[in-house]
Amino acid sequence: DAIMSVKCLLVEPQGSHQVIVFKINDKIVKLVISGETKIKSGDTFFINFKQEKILFFDYESHEEI
């Protein structure tokens, strides 16, 4: 598992879920989470994830890398 602290740049509400935008090493990352989670732009929060469960997509083709 990996744990890191990140700062929320933007919250995009999508109904039952929301997209949280933040940066890791100057790269924009978007995280889809439950719409019930209370995170606001400017909040710092911790993410904990299993590295084998992460999916990366090419920005232009939208295909999984």
TrEMBL record:
InterPro entries: Mo/tungstate-bd_C_term_dom (IPR008995), NA-bd_OB-fold (IPR012340)
Protein name (Swiss-Prot/TrEMBL): Transport-associated OB type 2 domain-containing protein
Organism: marine sediment metagenome
